[in-house]
Amino acid sequence: NAGVTQTPKFQVLKTGQSMTLQCAQDMNHEYMSWYRQDPGMGLRLIHYSVGAGITDQGEVPNGYNVSRSTTEDFPLRLLSAAPSQTSVYFCASRQQGATEAFFGQGTRLTVV
Amino acid sequence: AQKITQTQPGMFVQEKEAVTLDCTYDTSDQSYGLFWYKQPSSGEMIFLIYQGSYDEQNATEGRYSLNFQKARKSANLVISASQLGDSAMYFCAMNPESNRLAFGKGNQVVVIP
Question: Which helix (H) or strand (E) holds A97?
Fold first, then answer.
């Protein structure tokens, strides 16, 4: 049972580069979310989805795009990386009506 | 927008003692869920306990209990009989009616032998 899988675990980007952080879950969960974690800031919601084809912005969406073409996958795209996007990124999924959200292992991104 | 407040500075706890982590929240929703997650130094997020806003009894999960005071909008986590493995960051979170799970900034706990 893989749960929530994030790839890559570590990534270094140059300013201006683009990339996609992958998130996949095998639990058939409707809800998926992306968070970033910065020191002293807790986890902040970037984007979330309540089902395939439906996405919405969270607290800090600027500079990020998402799409949800399937229930399983919820990739996060950085359009033009900036040093301010250096952070640890977490993907989470949850069954509708359930109490627990399951998190991936995180992706540590550094933008130089 | 929902707001979760965790203001305690880092805490040192003696092994086998209990520790209480404070969490207050602000929402106008009638229905919501409250969560606590543990993040050890390895970085993963571990679900600990859940309390629904309509639950009349405080939630308990093993050594973890949630002291829910709805009128005061507080959801404090109590860890009984602390163990060295409890050293971690602890995050309070709330899932409002919009299902946009929001987190506090966390409490650092260090358990000392």
Answer: none
The pLDDT tens digits of the residues spanning B6-22 come to: 988 889 999 999 999 99
Beta-bridge partner residues of B2: none
Are the beta carbons of B100 and A40 separated by less than 8 Å?
no
* Lookup result for tokens 């500075």: B9
pLDDT digits (tens, 9 = 90+) for A52-67: 999 999 999 999 999 9
User: Residue B47: closest CA among chain A residues belongs to which residue?
Assistant: A100
Cβ atoms of B75 and B66 closer than 8 Å: yes
DSSP class of residue B57 equals: S
Residue A3, CA distances (Å) to A25, A69, B6 in order: 6, 19, 29
Give the one of A33, A42, A99 whose C-beta lies nearest to B50's C-beta: A99
Determine contact, residues B107/B90, Cβ cutoff 8 Å. yes
Q: Which residue of B has its CA nearest to A6?
A: B44
Tokens coding B8: 């305690």
